[in-house]
Amino acid sequence: MLRDTLQILLAAYGPSGHESAVADAVRELLEGHVDSMKTDALGNLIVEKFGTDENAKTIMISAHMDHIGLVVTDIEKEGFLRVNAVGGISPLFVRGRKVVFKDGLPGVCALEPNTKNKSTPDLSDLFVDIGAESREEAEKLVSIGDMAVYAPDFTALGKHKVASPAMDDRCACALLCELLMYAEGQKHNIVGVFSTQEEVGLRGAKVAAYTVEPDIGLALDVTAWGDTPETKLPAVKLGQGPAVKIMDRSMIASPAVREKLFEAADLAGVAVQREVLAFGGTDGGAIQLSRGGVPTGTLSIPCRYVHSANEVIDMRDMEGALKVLLQFVDLA
Ligand code: CO
Ligand code: ZN
User: Fold this and answer.
1) Ligand (nearest to CA of 282)
2) Ligand 2 center–CA 257 separation, angstroms
3) What is the pLDDT of residues 56-113, one digit of tens each?
4) Residues 11-32: tens digit of each pLDDT
5) Is residue 155 in a domain?
6) Ligand 2 centre and the CA of 98: distance in Å?
7) Domain containing 244: what range?
8) Catalytic pick among 178, 198, 275, 311
9) Are residues 295 and 213 in the same domain?
């Protein structure tokens, strides 16, 4: 079930560049459901499921495994950690939050009191308290360069919504897993790429696309929301279906792929939204610029409070997206 797969993947530790625990969880879920699995030098997990058509195209579908986080830059003599960003993480979202390091070591984040009068504190005003009482004690637990992520969590909100810190982009990893599990006798070759280092610049997808040489590219990712107080853009609402991206800062979606997604949604009987995002990017931006160019689109899951410790999605959009994907790999 989608929800169970999602919960398994949300629990794995995986800041950018350190995604192997997520890859292990995916490998375990997909064992016996796919034709091949391999990991490349950047840690991308590349999974093939062959199509049945003699003219089968190769469709690369990417979902990133990495999660934004904090990297230790210095340890104060009193034992507090100084940190910098791994991806787009804001001090306003991080303050007061619990984080965990790879070995499960917890910490809590706080802002210096003198930042109260600052309208925009930055990460240099933040420190992480791991309970150590001296630099020496802290150094036994962490080293400069160690990374922390928001502590894993999963909360059901109302009938259909769920909140978690790692929804970006484990919800898409869950979709891609389920697609690979449930696609049966589909026309085209699916190459699922569970990519790395998206949050620091679409790095994993860039090399994976070169290796895979796809005929068609598709990224799966969260997008922003326009349905909370004083938030009107993008014109995307939770629970109204997955969104077909028209453009964002990283790409203008291939009109042909976009239309195939609409067609697949039609066949699946799933309502979809049209997404124009004034900021952000996805693996799609890297895939479409690979080699001589790849026609590429993005299917998005609307997500509130992206990059906070409570990223909220609607499970109805997830279920709709899975149905669209199952049609797409038969049609594209
Ligand atoms: Co992100
Ligand atoms: Zn993402």
Assistant:
1) 2
2) 20
3) 999 999 999 999 999 999 999 999 999 999 999 999 999 999 999 999 999 999 999 8
4) 999 999 999 999 999 999 999 9
5) no
6) 21
7) 2-67+166-331
8) 198
9) yes
Ligand nearest 171 Cα, by number?
Answer: 2
Q: How far apart are the first and last CA of the chain?
A: 25
Same domain, 191 and 232: yes
Task: Check if 263 is active-site.
Answer: no
Indicate if 126 and 220 belong to the same structural domain: no
Instruction: Give CA angle at 268 (225, 168), nearest 5°.
Output: 30
Mean pLDDT of the chain: 97
Rounded distance from Cα 6 to ligand 2 centre (Å) = 15
pLDDT given for residue 328 in this prediction: 98
pLDDT band, very low/low/confident/very high, at 232 (cuts 50, 70, 90)? confident
| Domain total of the chain | 2
What distance in angstroms lies between residue 244's CA and the mean position of ligand 1's atoms? 17
Ligand number nearest CA of 220 is 2
Distance 201 CA to ligand 1 centre (A): 10
**According to the model, what pLDDT value does residue 118 have?**
75
SS3 112: coil
Please tell me whether residues 21 and 76 are part of one structural domain.
Answer: no
**CB-neighbour burial class of residue 265 (10 A; exposed 0-12, middle 13-18, buried 19+):** buried
Residue finishing a domain among 150, 176, 202: 150
**Whether residue 246 sits in one domain with residue 132:** no
Say whether 251 sits in a helix, a strand or coil.
coil
